[in-house]
Design goal:
GO molecular function: phosphoric ester hydrolase activity; zinc ion binding
Number of strands: 7
Radius of gyration: 17 Å
CATH topology: TIM Barrel
CATH superfamily: Metal-dependent hydrolases
Number of domains: 1
Protein name: Polymerase/histidinol phosphatase N-terminal domain-containing protein
Shape: globular
Order of helices and strands: HEHEHEHEHEHEHEH
Structural class: alpha/beta
CATH architecture: Alpha-Beta Barrel
Strand order of the largest sheet: 1-2-3-4-5-6-7
Distance between the termini: 13 Å
Strand content: 5-15%
CATH class: Alpha Beta
Number of helices: 8
Helix content: 25-40%
């Protein structure tokens, strides 16, 4: 039976961190160290989501099986669920990603992240439009569960987009069942994006983008933003992946 939160308890206790990196990509620690940190912070679950291989700091294709086996072993020994995931890189304007379907089908959670945008646009508004179209093409095409740090590409690109753009994005997220991440590292997306997503019924996901054990589960910004936009427990992705 799902746990029932009291009003104050929900304000104070973040329960899951669905975006964590280890030494398999650009993190600094073993998966077991990140899980130990999550347990010590009182989380009820964590997802290991190292970068896919197309990013310069991503996991080597030859290490993917090793990473998956490592996470499986850690999960078997841990006191909390440890989800096997990846932060797949969006690598083309048409929505391609760098993880093949055979691997995707073996994962508990797939985070989609856009780090290199295949665009020649120089004007911020045009760049923002290319970002939006790329992300929406990915959402239509790929089996991803969470969109990482939405609209962050060296800066917050959402400020260059219209309200209609944001509504189209949010409606697509609802149709595809993709959650939108509240990201600790970049404090993204903006309050305006989150308010639109919440109004349209988009699920929200909590992720630190942690690269060290000390960063795991530090969801202070997310909990503050949740309060500001009036999100409730049912608006969040919490136990859906367990």
């Amino acid at each position: 039976m799902p746990r029932v939160f009291g009003k104050e308890e929900f304000k104070m206790i973040p329960e899951f961190d669905f975006h964590v990196h280890t030494h398999y990509s650009d993190g600094l620690s073993e998966p077991v160290e990140m899980v130990e940190a999550a347990t010590a912070r009182g989380l009820r679950g964590i997802a290991i989501t190292d970068h896919g291989p197309e990013l310069s700091v991503g996991i080597s294709p030859t290490k993917i099986e090793q990473m998956m086996n490592d996470v499986e072993i850690v999960n078997g020994d841990a006191d909390i669920p440890v989800l096997l995931g990846i932060e797949a890189n969006i690598i083309g304007l048409n929505g391609e990603i760098d993880i093949d379907e055979e691997i995707l089908n073996r994962l508990d959670v797939v985070v989609g992240g856009l780090h290199n945008l295949a665009s020649s646009a120089q004007i911020p508004k045009a760049l923002a439009k290319d970002y939006l179209n790329t992300v929406m093409n990915t959402m239509k095409l790929q089996k991803i569960d969470i969109l990482a740090h939405p609209f962050w590409f060296h800066e917050d690109l959402s400020k260059y987009l219209s309200q209609e753009d944001m509504e189209d994005f949010a409606k697509l997220a609802v149709r595809t069942g993709i959650a939108i991440e509240l990201n600790t590292k970049y404090h993204s997306p903006s309050r305006e994006v989150l308010t639109t997503c919440l109004r349209e019924g988009v699920k929200l996901s909590l992720g630190t983008d942690a690269h060290t054990p000390s960063e795991v589960g530090d969801l202070t910004w997310q909990m503050s933003m949740i309060k500001k936009i009036g999100a409730k427990k049912e608006d969040l992705v919490l136990e859906e992946f367990l």
